[in-house]
């Protein structure tokens, strides 16, 4: 029973700062750190905009804040003994922190202020006692500014983004984690986010968060969170499930069909003078980059109808109008041609053909994109033999072909039968890896 007509049973003291106070920049504060935890004795203050929230239990006794509501350049965190801090310091609020008598510390590039924690004579930043929180941390009397997360990619993460709110598009949970909850109950749990180029980012979840038992999404999309750094890696912490918007097909279900049509085999080498200088070259003739996640290159030896060997191209990307050169002997390749191959593989691989084998390029769905040779037919004495020679795609050919067409190639070998050219080729002068 209650005579209160709404859910506001108690009016919270907002500790609103309605007067001007002189502040320094977060970067100026960081410059005071000289290698060990230091107590601040000067009458200094900093301001920032709150980006974290403990409302759903994924943050505990910490507030992360940044120097601007959008496009931040600095971030910081304050350790404090205050549960339900979101009731006092909500996301988007501008806060002012009076620094005198607080401690400043740094660990692996992560800066924080707060109270002091001493262990075996060593000082580090600890939680600011609850009875001191509102003496040091004040909200301004302005309206909530709101926060615009900084849009970035896993590859572009850097230390200036620590303690700031970021957003990353087109990521998904690692496949072997699908079907699992965000966290194991009562345990801090790391889940792995991955983009379509196989770049990874750890997502740090509390086993006490309200969304702990929720199952990870099997789709792809954007994730927003506070960037931290721990165990020598970047980690992201979300505030609640609204920070995870996965509404797209996963990477393996999404292939840019227009771009993939322009990935083709352009040169296969079996030098007469050096079998160690063999290689195979792929070319992306479009202007767009193409992730090779899930792509494979397969070899059918002689007249075999079964795949003899294959190369998984996952983790690689071919930029627009660029090449991927694959070698079965990276040291010898570099010694002969003067530069390292893009991918080093083993002997007897598709890049190590002796001139009478058939090569197939396959996309993530198992569809053939390009073919050299005729599967089931030994290349010897045919129009697809390049023994002691070279198979070179004509420059005007810019798309793959699911059926071998000898007219698309210049084929050199040691026999010259069936329309091929009887001119054995020697490395390096007769080959052009990485060029058309």
Structure write-up:
This protein has 436 residues and is mainly beta. The protein is 6% helix and 34% strand. It is built from four helices and 30 strands. The chain has helices spanning 26-30, 130-136, 257-260, 330-337, and strands at residues 16-17, 38-39, 45-50, 62-66, 75-79, 94-98, 103-107, 110-119, 122-126, 137-140, 150-152, 165-173, 189-195, 200-205, 220-230, 233-237, 244-248, 263-269, 279-284, 290-291, 296-300, 309-312, 317-318, 322-327, 343-344, 358-362, 368-372, 390-393, 409-413, 421-422. A hairpin with a 2-residue loop joins strand 8 and strand 9.
Attribute tags:
4 helices; 34% strand; 6% helix; seven-stranded mixed beta sheet; 436 residues
Summarize the structure.
The chain has 436 residues and is mainly β. The chain is built from 4 helices and 30 strands. The strands form 5 sheets. Strands 1, 2, 3, 4, 5, 6, 7, 8, 9 and 10 form a 10-stranded mixed sheet that branches. Strands 25-24-19-18-28-29-30 form a 7-stranded mixed sheet, with no helix packed on it.
By DSSP (H or I, 4+ residues per run), the number of helices equals 4
* Radius of gyration, CA atoms, in whole angstroms: 30 Å
Helix amount:
under 10%
- Class of secondary structure makeup: mainly beta
- β-strand number: 30
Residue-averaged pLDDT:
92
The percentage of residues in β strands lies in 25-35%
List low-pLDDT spans.
6-12
Oligomer, anyone? single chain
Main β-sheet description: 10 strands, mixed
* Ends distance: 83 Å
The coarse silhouette is elongated
């Amino acid at each position: 029973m209650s005579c209160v007509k709404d859910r506001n049973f108690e009016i919270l003291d907002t500790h609103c700062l309605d007067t001007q106070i002189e502040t320094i920049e977060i970067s100026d504060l960081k410059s005071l750190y000289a290698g060990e935890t230091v107590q601040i004795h000067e009458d200094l203050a900093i301001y920032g905009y709150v980006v974290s929230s403990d409302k759903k239990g994924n943050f505990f006794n910490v507030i992360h804040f940044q120097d601007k509501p959008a496009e931040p350049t600095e971030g910081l965190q304050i350790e404090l003994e205050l549960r339900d801090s979101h009731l006092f310091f909500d996301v988007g609020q501008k806060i002012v922190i009076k620094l005198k008598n607080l401690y400043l510390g740094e660990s692996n590039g992560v800066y924080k202020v707060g109270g002091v924690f001493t262990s075996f004579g060593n000082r580090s930043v600890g939680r600011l006692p609850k009875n001191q929180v509102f003496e040091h941390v004040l909200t301004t009397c302005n309206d909530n500014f709101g926060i615009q997360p900084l849009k970035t990619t896993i590859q572009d993460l850097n230390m200036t983004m620590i303690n700031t709110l970021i957003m990353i598009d087109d990521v998904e949970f690692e496949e072997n984690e699908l079907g699992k909850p965000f966290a194991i109950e009562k345990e801090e749990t790391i889940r792995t986010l991955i983009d379509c180029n196989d770049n990874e980012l750890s997502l740090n979840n509390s086993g006490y968060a309200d969304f702990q038992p929720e199952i990870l999404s099997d789709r792809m999309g954007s994730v927003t969170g506070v960037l931290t750094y721990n165990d020598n890696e970047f980690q992201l912490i979300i505030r609640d499930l609204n920070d995870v918007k996965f509404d797209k097909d996963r990477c393996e279900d999404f292939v840019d069909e227009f771009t993939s049509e322009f990935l083709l085999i352009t040169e296969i080498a079996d030098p007469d003078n050096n079998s160690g200088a063999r290689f195979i070259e792929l070319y992306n003739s479009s202007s767009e980059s193409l992730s090779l996640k899930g792509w494979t290159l397969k070899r059918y030896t002689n007249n075999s109808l079964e795949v003899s060997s294959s190369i998984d191209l996952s983790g690689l990307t071919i930029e627009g109008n660029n090449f991927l050169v694959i070698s079965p002997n990276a040291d010898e390749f570099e010694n002969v041609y003067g530069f390292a191959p893009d991918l080093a593989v083993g002997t007897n691989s598709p890049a190590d053909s002796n001139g009478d084998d058939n090569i197939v390029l396959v996309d993530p769905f198992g569809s053939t994109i390009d073919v050299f040779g005729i599967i089931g037919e030994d290349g010897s004495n045919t129009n697809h033999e390049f023994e002691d020679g070279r198979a070179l795609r004509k420059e005007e050919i810019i798309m793959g072909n699911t059926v071998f067409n000898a007219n698309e190639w210049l084929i050199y070998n040691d026999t010259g039968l069936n329309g091929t050219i009887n001119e054995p080729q020697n490395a390096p002068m007769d080959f052009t890896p990485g060029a058309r």
